[in-house]
Write a structure and sequence with these properties.
Blueprint (H helix, E strand, L loop, with lengths): L45 H8 L14 E4 L4 E8 L14 E5 L11 E5 L3 E2 L2 E2 L13 E5 L5 E6 L4 E4 L15 E11 L5 E11 L2
């Protein structure tokens, strides 16, 4: 579980507004406004687990392509595309089936730093690969390939955190500090701007 003293304020699928802390990121690309009647999932929604159970299973981790990640119990499999944060912009891929891995953060299986991966919850009317992310619970397993091609497993440290979109903690994009993997998507009600109000942030540590 992400400790309250280290709460992240993250914005994906919409604005990553730069604030008083000079290291804020500006906005994500590839976003299409969302209808107000299509709120995104949030942790604790009792209907979410039932919906996830009806989704199509993903292949076993041993069959996971090298450029992808999976959370089999949540029916999540997503292709990974490397993205670069430039001019305070994190260009999350427009394709809802693809997530963006920051090249300036840590790579999977690194000894230190944060592996930062973000994707849309919904885009162009299609559910994103990370739509079920709010259903993560402590111990949920995530599978991803290390840079050398070996398959490794991460486990969730707790339930996801929900935060209102404001400033992004620049510490999420770093090669320093204890190693972790952070997944980010959107959730909650849709504002008049067509952007989700909240972010869903899930933290994982390497198993073993």
């Amino acid at each position: 579980m992400i400790h309250p003293s280290r709460r992240r304020r993250v914005a994906t699928g919409a604005a990553l507004a730069a604030g008083a802390a000079a290291a804020g990121w500006a906005m994500l690309t590839g976003f299409q406004p969302v209808p107000a009647g299509e709120p995104g999932p949030l942790p604790g929604d009792p209907a979410l687990a039932r919906t996830v159970a009806t989704m199509r299973p993903v292949p076993e981790p041993e069959r996971l392509p090298r450029d992808a990640l999976s959370l089999p119990t949540l029916r999540i499999q997503a292709t990974i595309k490397l993205v670069t944060i430039t001019d305070r912009t994190l260009p999350v891929p427009a394709d809802p089936a693809v997530v963006g891995l920051s090249v300036t953060g840590a790579r999977p299986c690194a000894r230190r730093g944060t592996t930062l991966i973000a994707g849309h919850v919904v885009n162009h009317g299609v559910r994103g690969a990370l739509w079920p992310l709010a259903a993560v619970t402590s111990g949920t397993r995530l599978h991803i390939h290390c840079p050398d091609g070996s398959l490794t497993t991460y486990v969730a440290t707790g339930s996801p955190e929900t935060v209102v979109k404001t400033n992004l903690d620049p510490g999420l994009d770093t090669t320093q500090g204890p190693h972790r993997l952070v997944l980010i998507t959107c959730g909650g009600p849709v504002l008049a701007t067509g952007h989700y109000r909240d972010n869903v942030v899930a933290e994982f540590t390497r198993a073993g």
